[in-house]
Design a protein that fits this description.
globular, 430 residues, single chain
Length: 430
């Protein structure tokens, strides 16, 4: 069901982007030439259309699901809306946020102000606007998706919930991928942006924006860590109840191990990269919450996962044991379904780093050295192309690599399974 919710989110994000591009172009042109009075209607039109589409994504995700409980429909709706908001940010929102500073510069110039703002102020404003845009789209999309999911879940006729085990178990695999990807994004943000703030502060002698430059990317990355870790903590007990064979439960056990190691990994990573950040109250709060969820994963492992795993029969044949350990049940999988699984995992692998680090750095690189000679249209268009191209290429590249690895693993698993069957037949005949 998570696969269908993700599909609803991706489709909604693409449609929203195609609608927002012309509206933003009209708003941007009206703002530069006529001020906000002539463009507020276009702005609110775009906001209303986006909100309706996010609600529609949640509604569609709930309708596609086999869930009877409104709460689960709301969760699927929130997933679809949040993913749609993230897609809109990567393809449109990041560039839109990064292209607002030339408008502010031009506005200062036309009002008789200084057209050469301080460099640290410019960098701080770009970081704040870029990640602020992501929070608006992601959290707003999630909230609107929850509303749509609740609306879509209030239908009669669904008495029992149906879990389709033949489809890829996207929720667990995507969460297992998202947790370490978000932690790595937090580590990279902690490495890059404090050093950027220190360098700019030394060059300009200004430190007013250094806190924003340092903490805003890290705060967003920590938010993604907490959300993905919370999702994994909830999913592991649910997947244990649905597991009906030993190999499937081993995958759930891996999810529990990822949840257990998340807090220590994050703490050690920040300690190695920038130890003074551990004294920041925001980082401390995130670490405490993450540690609580890791302890909960320990409890789930020993009270739920391992007891049920012990109830499953162990393969008698040594070759079957090797096959179960190395390949699990991948020999019974289908190639297209594995590609769908790789698509979800690839998105979760790329998006945290793209949002927290890459999008911000692209917007910062779009600032010309001399602000006195800028052509607004060229800067805005180049920024949109760069953001969309980098995000799309990174996601497509990771999905392609994962798909090739999994398809090769599928062929290897089928070969090993076929070889094991031939060996068993030979033993029986002899």
């Amino acid at each position: 069901m998570t696969t269908r919710a993700g599909l609803a989110g991706i489709v909604t994000g693409l449609i929203s982007t195609m609608i927002l591009y012309p509206l933003y172009a009209a708003w941007h042109n009206a703002y530069v030439h006529g001020g906000l009075a002539g463009s507020s209607g276009i702005f609110w039109m775009g906001a209303a259309v986006t909100a309706i589409l996010m609600i529609g994504a949640g509604f569609l995700a709930a309708r596609w699901s086999m869930f009877a409980r409104p709460g689960r429909c709301a969760v699927l709706g929130g997933l679809a809306g949040g993913l749609a908001g993230t897609i809109v940010f990567c393809l449109w929102g990041a560039a839109a946020a990064g292209s607002t500073w030339p408008v502010l510069v031009c506005d200062k110039a036309t009002s008789g102000g200084n057209c050469q703002p301080e460099q640290v102020e410019m960098i701080g404003a770009i970081v704040l606007q870029t990640l602020g845009m992501f929070l608006v789209l992601f959290l707003g999309g999630t909230g609107l998706g929850v509303v749509g999911g609740r609306l879509g879940g209030t239908r009669a006729g669904v008495a029992t919930e149906e879990f389709v085990r033949s489809e890829p178990q996207m929720a667990l695999n995507a969460s297992i991928t998202a947790v370490p990807a978000s932690i790595v994004a937090a580590g990279i943000a902690a490495f890059i942006f404090p050093r950027l703030a220190d360098s700019v502060g030394r060059l300009t002698g200004e430190s007013a924006w250094s806190g924003t430059i340092t903490m805003m990317p890290l705060a967003v990355a920590l938010l993604l860590v907490l959300i993905s870790h919370f999702a994994l903590t909830l999913l592991v007990p649910h997947e244990v109840r649905q597991a009906d064979h030993l190999c499937g439960l081993d995958e759930v056990k891996m999810g529990a191990y990822v949840g257990i190691g998340a807090a220590p990994f994050l703490m050690v990573l920040l300690l190695v990269i920038r130890a003074d950040l551990l004294l920041n109250p925001l980082v401390l709060i995130a670490l405490v919450i993450c540690s609580g969820m890791s302890l909960k994963s320990v409890q789930t492992l020993y009270r739920v996962v391992l007891p049920k795993r012990a109830s499953f029969p162990v393969p008698d044949n040594e070759r079957q044991k090797v096959e179960a350990s190395l390949f699990g049940t991948i020999a019974n999988s289908h190639g297209p379904r594995l590609v769908i699984l790789c698509t979800g995992c690839g998105l979760m692998m790329v998006l945290p780093l793209s949002v927290c680090v890459i999008a911000v750095l692209i917007n910062l690189s779009g600032v010309p050295a001399n602000l006195a000679f800028i052509r607004l249209s060229e800067i805005v268009w180049r920024l949109f192309l760069t953001q969309a191209w980098v995000s799309s290429a990174a996601v497509a590249g990771v999905i392609a690599v994962l798909s090739m690895i999994y398809l090769f693993y599928l062929k290897l698993g089928r070969w090993f399974s076929k070889r094991s069957a031939q060996v068993r037949e030979g033993v029986l005949h002899s």
